[in-house]
Design brief:
The protein is an alpha/beta fold. The protein has two domains: 138 residues, Rossmann fold (3-Layer(aba) Sandwich), CATH 3.40.50.2300; 168 residues, Alpha-Beta Plaits, CATH 3.30.70.270. Helices cover 51% and strands 17% of the residues. The strands form two sheets. Strands 7-8-6-9-10-11 form a six-stranded mixed sheet, sandwiched between helices. Strands 2-1-3-4-5 form a five-stranded parallel sheet, with helices on both faces. The longest helix is centred in the middle third of the chain and has 38 residues. It is elongated and about 95 Å long. Bound molecules: guanosine-5'-triphosphate (GTP). Guanosine-5'-triphosphate (GTP) binds next to strand 6, helix 7 and helix 8.
């Protein structure tokens, strides 16, 4: 009889030989483990996915598919997971042991196995399994902590601009200030045109690089210390421009369109232009008590939708109900 183990394991015993399987199961049972038995590879795979055992003791020589094949199927059935598998075989040849380890086994014992050796191997596997669980738990904790840090952070990790959280706080702050001063405040939401096509043509890595370049250009267009640019999410950016009335906002937007044209970041598949272009929605107000950040965002988003619908590569003003192209024709400017 095996000496009793500290922790109860669920062990799948796979052997087509009834006598050997039953004897081994009885040993394990007496040592305090929960045993599941399979007399064929197919049944073993079924029980493996149904019960997710802590350990598998797998006979190598079976009719039809052998233990090596079964081990490979088990490994394939738990990508990223790891259930210890110990082979049991009548053959102790070097080649067979090598094959067993190659097939995904963790250890290889030659039958008949001494109960003491078997128990020692179970303890070793159990220890490895516990360490693995601890590592998985640690990396899960780390991932959660990183997500929380990112959430608390004010910086967008891809572009280095303010993230949405910081933008929301800044917008509220500027709104309060503009309300106190009776001053004009402009919010611009802008979105890269046909960015999906860019990603599809160039791949995600170059797509990321493109977003970083756009971010840099937006940062450079914020010349006044109080202006600020941030990434609102995906390929959408926001600009908060304090002390900026409607006409000033339109002039700013047209300068931004020119900057994008001069920067000429090639877009391989844009129906709008050969380079990366932006569409934008502008809202400007002198806030009163009823003006909220949500209302400004809704107006800017509405105007952005219009800029997209009117052909892209333009900025639409919510209050003027006019885009930068129309304004250029009216003022004859630019
Ligand atoms: N590379 C990269 N792509 C992103 C990121 N965030 C969002 N995207 C992609 O941006 C694309 C946005 O696609 P859509 O919303 O269809 O917009 P669009 O293709 O720019 O089309 P319009 O806005 O109508 O001009 C999607 O393919 C997203 O996967 C990012 O951080 N990196």
């Amino acid at each position: 009889m095996l000496p009793s183990s500290h922790t109860q394991l669920t062990i799948l015993v796979v052997d087509d030989q009834n006598a050997a399987r039953v004897a081994l199961s009885a040993e394990l049972d007496q040592a305090g483990h929960r045993v599941i038995e399979a007399d064929s590879p197919d049944w073993a795979l079924e029980l493996f996915s149904r019960y997710r055992p802590d350990l598998v003791l797998l006979d190598v020589e079976m009719p039809g598919h052998d233990g090596f094949w079964t081990a490979r199927q088990m490994r394939a059935a738990e990508p990223g997971g790891w259930t210890p598998i110990i082979f049991l075989s009548k053959s102790g040849e070097d080649r067979a042991i090598w094959q067993g380890i190659e097939a995904g086994g963790d250890d290889y014992l030659v039958k008949p196995v001494s109960p003491v050796i078997l128990h020692a191997k179970l303890r070793a596997m159990q220890r490895l399994s516990q360490m693995r669980h601890r590592l998985v738990q640690l990396s899960d904790d780390l991932r959660a902590a990183n997500a929380q840090l990112q959430e608390l952070s004010h910086v967008d990790s891809l572009t280095g601009l303010m993230n949405r959280r910081a933008l929301d706080a800044r917008l509220q702050q500027e709104l309060d200030q503009a309300r106190r001063d009776g001053d004009a405040l402009t919010l611009v939401l802008c979105d890269v045109d046909h960015f999906k096509r860019y990603n599809d043509a160039r791949g995600h890595i170059e797509g990321d690089a493109c977003l970083r370049r756009v971010a840099q250009l937006l940062r450079e267009t914020c010349r006044r210390p109080s202006d600020c640019a941030g990434r609102y999410g995906g390929e959408e950016f926001a600009l908060i421009l304090p002390h900026t009335p409607r006409s000033g906002a339109m002039t700013y937007a047209r300068a931004l369109i020119r900057t994008m044209a001069l920067a000429h970041i090639p877009h391989p598949d844009s129906p709008v232009a050969a380079h990366i272009t932006l569409s934008g929605g502008i809202t400007t107000c002198t806030p009163d008590e009823s003006t909220t950040a949500e209302v400004l965002l809704m107006r800017a988003d509405d105007a952005l939708y219009n800029a997209k619908s009117y052909g892209r590569n333009r900025f639409f003003s919510y209050e003027m109900q006019m885009d930068t192209d129309e304004q250029r024709h009216i003022t004859g400017n630019g």
